[in-house]
Every structure is written in C-alpha cells, then in structure tokens.
Design goal:
Helix content: over 70%
Number of strands: 0
Low-confidence stretches: none
Order of helices and strands: HHHHH
Number of helices: 5
Mean pLDDT: 77
Distance between the termini: 19 Å
Number of domains: 1
Structural class: mainly alpha
Length: 121
C-alpha cells in the first residue's frame, strides 16, 4: 500500500496543473510565477523520489504501480489530445494552445517516467 501512496502526487500532477492553469487564466494572475512555483515543487519532489528509493519490491509490484499511474493519467492524455486538436482547428490562433499543452504533456510523461525509473533501480 505504501508504494501506491507514494504515487499519488504523480497521479494527480496533471490534473492539479490543468486546474492551476485554468484558475490562472480566469483570475488573470501572472502565470509565470505560478508555473515556476509549481514546476519547482515538482522538481524538488522528483529529486526526493530519486534519493529515497523503494526497496524490497518485486517486479510485479513495480509493474502494478506503473500501470496504476498510467491508468489514472489516461483521462489527462485524452483531454490533452482533444484540446490540442481544438487548437489545431483554430489555425494560427491555436498554436500557443498546442505548444503549452505539448509542454505540459511532456512534463507529465517525464515525471511519471522518472518515478518508474526510480522504482526499477
């Protein structure tokens, strides 16, 4: 159960990030400071994950955790794809949407990948 509890920040990462971007857009807050703060927190969490590795887990346990992470992040990837297609249909005005969502999608994949690597070594 401990291994699933440690994966909760990785699982909710894309949803919190998307909600944060939505709130920043509605409230017209400076997005730079908010994103830098959030990415700093995620980088610190990732470094802590790399330092404190899990021990005494079999390959089956590691695979189950990785599968659970990908399963819970699947709606994020579908939402991201739909919004990127919407940005594609917008033409020139949708290019910033596509770029931002691609960067967010990349950061989600990198973070979950680092978590998986941490489980394996």
């Amino acid at each position: 159960m401990k291994k699933y509890l440690q994966a909760i920040p990785i699982i909710i990462y894309p949803y919190v990030l998307f909600t944060l971007l939505f709130i920043v857009t509605i409230l017209d807050i400076s997005m730079d400071i908010t994103l830098y703060t959030y990415f700093t927190i995620i980088i610190i969490y990732t470094i802590l994950l790399l330092i404190f590795k899990l021990k005494d887990y079999t390959e089956k346990d590691i695979t189950n955790v990785n599968l659970a992470i990908k399963l819970f992040q699947l709606p994020w990837f579908i939402l991201c794809l739909m919004l990127e297609l919407f940005g594609l249909f917008m033409g020139v005005f949708g290019i910033p949407i596509i770029v931002i969502l691609t960067m967010l999608n990349f950061s989600v994949r990198i973070t979950s990948g680092i978590y998986s690597i941490r489980l394996c070594y």
